[in-house]
Amino acid sequence: MKRIISLFTIKVITAFLLFSQILMAAGEADYPENYYDKVALFLIFVIIIGFLSLVYFESKIKVVKEKQPSVFWAKFKYYLTKSTPIEKEQEVLLADHNYDGIKELDNRIPPWFSGLFYATILFSIWYMLHYHVLGTGDLQEAEYAQEVRIAEIQRAELMRSGAMINEETVTLLTEPALLESGKQIFITNCAACHAADGGGLVGPNLTDDYWIHGGGIKNVFKVVKYGVVNKGMIAWQNQLNPKQMQEVSSYVLSLHGTTPANPKAPEGTIWKEE
Amino acid sequence: MELERFSYDNRIVRNFAFATLLWGMVGMIVGLLIALQLFIPELNFSIPFLTFGRIRPLHTNAVIFAFVGNAIFMGVYHSLPRLLKTPMFSKMLSNIHFWGWQLIIVAAAITLPLGITTSKEYAELEWPIDIAITLVWVAFGINMIGTIIKRRESHIYVAIWFYIATWVTVAVLHIVNSFEIPVTFLKSYSLYAGVQDALVQWWYGHNAVAFFLTTPYLGLMYYYLPKAANRPVYSYRLSILHFWTLIFLYIWAGPHHLLYSALPDWAQSLGTVFSVMLIAPSWGGMVNGLLTLRGAWDRVRQDPVLKFMVVAVTAYGMATFEGPTLSLKNVNAIAHFTDWIIAHVHVGALGWNGFLTFGILYWLVPKLWKTDLYSKKMANVHFWIGFLGIVFYALPMWFSGITQALMWKQFNEFGILQYPNFLETVLQIVPMYIIRAFGGSLYIIGFILMLYNLIKTMKQGSFINEEVSEAPPLHNFRDPFKKGTRHRWLEGKPIYFTILALVVILIGGIVEFVPTFLIKSNIPTIASVKPYTPLELQGRDIYIREACNSCHSQLVRPFRSETERYGEYSKAGEYVYDHPFLWGSKRSGPDLHRVGGKYPNSWHYLHMENPRQISPGSTMPPYPWLLVNDLNTTTTEAKINALRKIGVPYPDGFEKVANAELVKQADQIALDLQKNGIPAEPQKEIIALIAYLQRLGTDIKANKETVSK
Q: Cα–Cα distances in Å, from B222 out to A96, A102, B23, B281, B645?
């Protein structure tokens, strides 16, 4: 019995872990850098403690004193299980059932079991009615439309409050800290095609005077944001936020006039700031 | 009454036991390799045959059909004759079954690493092997039914009900899901397309779990658990109730693998509600097993056999509660495509199937070799190491699954994705992958301990080839209907029993299939969706060969977090020419349904050569051979012809000009690559794959948000 109890403990711990994770993650929008290493250590710790306690319980053989169970509890248990006690099991033993020595009892179906079964059936009927007959539940397309509607309202709100930078409002940044952050974004996302020093590989050289889609912060921001798909430039608007796009665009413009290691030949036309 | 003497064939049981041990070891080692590859991608050694996509199906097939399959047959060939007091019907059929099954496994172990696959999960084997499986399965069926008919026991025991249900259902599942049109000796296309293929596949896939990993094992539990505990089965009427409800309800639940997909809503809802209704029937088996141990719990503490069985049955109870939970829409929205599902199946596979198999082996081997177990202590150590292995496996996978799903869904204050780079969400869970591999290793160490222990046991005992027994012949019993219940009567009529079981399992499938196949409105057509060009078709077959669908889905679900990340959500009408469908079931990498036109050709070329030169830290394996191998275009004509036969509208005579079209398209892509400084040749496989990837999802793709000058 003890083993079952300790197994149960393990299950409770597991369930608790699962649940707490949902809660934690729901409340936390950002994950610190080393969050996962800590979690991993914590998991290992919990598992080892749980394991040791299990093994400990197993090795400790204790004489369990028969306690007189309360009448109420016994009645309640009987009501839930309708189980014939083990001393009386001869009464429910099926006499003509003997298969290679295996005998069968004919205990009643536990009422809790029937109750569970009926409950799931009722749930199923309700579920089908709710979604497919009464039409009171949102099916997936309606659910999606609702989600998009809410997001659009929120986005409009943001636009109004000016929190979002777009190609019309964007300005060139010059603060070294912001350019440094733009540089990091550039190295992670852009260097594969434009080379780490902006000299160009698959993509054009970003250090010379020539621009294919126009120079200046507004045009560069626009190309970064929407991409030029038929020429291979990816649209970044779903991957970088406007602030990041502003930083990386500003960094790109700061490369003007530098001398890259392997500059690609100029493409496009010479750009002059009006 | 005259007693008849006869003997049980123990050799076939021994052979299946050896096969169980051998394939179990192989399957688990391959599993460990792919678990390591998920955080050390170089472990494919740049060899195609060792790459994740190709050996992941090898792992699943090996553990399901080789390890568990042989264990089922071991148990059936041991328990069935004893429960019926008669030898197996035909020794020849037993041997055909054994050797046929092992040959199929060997064929799988050769073809899967070679990339010969239908891509349908747990049914990856190509059509000649499918036919071989059918034949061997029929041999098994004749042998089993034959044994039941010439029995010396008037009624069939509950274990045999489960064996019968297993046999008929697996036969139906295998045949219906394997309808495919052969193109060459080792290549075929599924007869079904897109949504319909997905429905049939997951009806199969789910019920492979139900009728290959569950019902036969319940049968084994009903024989070996009371035997090992020496206690009567708790409740006969509970057996009847949970048997029939289980097999009736299980068959409906397949669509829960396709929630929030392009499958019609009504079918998705059926999948959900039937999964929920499955809790009680599944728990019926667990309850009957655990309560059979009443009065034997003191021995559970001492006896490793019972210990393994108790944890197995408990794991079964946990997994069958978790399953219905995962079938609820709101839970599935988080869990689907993540490691949570991996945790779920491994609680079932390692706990229920693995531990029950171990318990049976520890009980059976000493019996067959007429001796005691070599070391009880070692078996106990195996138990604890194995148990720890399961915990170290399941916990981190639950954790990583939920974490990654929440990161996929997280929006920031600007209303755009917090983690737009998919890779970021993968790198976060790498520590969990490392712990999981550790858990898997523990489980394998336990398995090796068992191998040693069992071999030592065999060495110290002496094997009995034929076990002599005796029993009175079965005399005609009259009027059983009046003496017992109707069900008792049915237990004396195994053929009626089999037919009734067949009818019961057919209902769910028919109700779900017929409308999906016949009613047009279930799959609205889209005019702009066209068949693949010859080059794209060849590229798609490379995608299938490398099993890209092991890690990449092609199904954008209708969530804002997915449409922002990938593009418009997937519509049923987009898949009408997809033989087979390639929706995938796990996202170790991002969805690819809208990848067409997202990156330049050169990006794909460099990415395939080595993913880490484009995405530093990526866990995708490199595919350098695609850049070197020439595309085999000799099959183009046969492929076009085969697809036209099953309804893809290629014009007449197109197969004659198909290769010319192919070359034209390949030249264009090669030219574009060369312009970007990549010395690509048009006849290479990579060109076809790029053509396919660039086509994906573009038939209805809206380009409204891109600058096109």
A: 17, 9, 25, 15, 48
